[in-house]
């Protein structure tokens, strides 16, 4: 019993898997591609019809028939496809509509259009004004058929009513947004060719073209009725679209309309059969492959295009051309924003604010120019352009913040570097104003050249204040350090002149310097008064000349030079006298006692 139970479960699962993975075997039948939602206000896709379309690899064209319910749309499509009612689209004669949503004939007609092998699908749409539907739903059906088709057959029984013209408002908006805007360029999206199909036996001496023109003439509106104004605007637009529309009349095939599916061609009105043939030729002559953004659409691309359109038309309470334009422009907007971001990303930050603003203007202009060349829509495109501008402003704000951050980092590093340099100059081994001023000037020039961006003004004030304080501090200590250094130097030279080189002139000069420094300050009670003495100025000038010059910096080379001088003196002191005698260093100290230089006698 348990074994048979598991066999049953396994067989159910197998059937489920097989049925779930199976594809359509027979495409010679109609399939729904768009169905109404449960509330019958919005539309949703049907995978059966999409599978029939997506398998096509050649360019696609679509012929859609729209019109009031029970106006013979499904029968007309069967006639155009040379199909009987049993094998073609379902034909109903009851009060409720037979077709729900939009249906497609699964086997396309293969035709050659200007050398391009094209697969032509025929679409049947749900009729307008049927029972239990809202006007918004009819508008969505109409709008979707208008966008996705290459030829839109407006099937009207007997005559053209005001309501029939009003229903074309979306097609007019669509044409105003797209038709001919970029005509001749490879990115054009043209709405469908509009074919007015009037089904009536007698036109009362008028041609169908005259009948359409008469219906599209202005209606007098002395009372200022807004509805009449709106319909008149549609009339004006349709008149401008004259090259994108045509008209055709088709007589009734037979008086017994409920029996049409049972009749053969021999039973139909000969005039109808003749005109039907002419209608097929007319439709074939105006069919064009669907082109979106510069390329033909194959099956999968057409399905993707349909998904985008349906998404846009389902937004909001009513379908709008604006939402459709946004869908078309979404990818273009993203590409233009990416172009702007790439241009701004190549900038070497930090940089001056004006240079950054100029770069922003150039990049923005380039991105907007690319958008103007590629975008869809005339009037509603402004919203997408404004959105692009706003998003570029947001990117620019981030770039400004990055520039400020990078500028702060760079200027802070240069400020710290200058601060460290000033600290080093404050503690020179041999104080020299010339070296300090040269270091200060070099620091200032380096900061001016390398610090850029919005933080420069702030850091300029800080560094000028810091350099001023550093120079004041250096000047304050400079004279005192130089005074102390000269006192020590004079004493050192006294020792060197008396005991090392024994050169009396050196010792005497050192004593004179020492006595001057000490006695002057004793006499005038402070060392500060010395700094105003001309002799001190002379000493300072001589010191600056000796200690620092562009060629020699004693602060750096003082120790190596002193070591070399000491070695030279020791060499001369120890070995020079033996070789050359003592006359070369006159006058020297004489340490011989008695004062006689005569040789001792035996």
Automatic annotation (TrEMBL):
Q: Name one GO molecular function term.
A: GTPase activity
Residues that span the membrane, as ranges: 557-576
Q: What is this protein called?
A: GB1/RHD3-type G domain-containing protein
User: CDD domains, from UniProt?
Assistant: GBP (cd01851)
Q: What Pfam families is this protein classified in? A: GBP, GBP_C
Q: Which UniProt keywords apply?
A: GTP-binding, Hydrolase, Membrane, Nucleotide-binding, Signal, Transmembrane, Transmembrane helix
Origin species: Gossypium darwinii (Darwin's cotton)
Query: What does the organism's lineage look like at the top?
Result: Eukaryota, Viridiplantae, Streptophyta, Embryophyta, Tracheophyta
- Going by the entry's taxonomy, the superkingdom of the source organism is recorded as Eukaryota
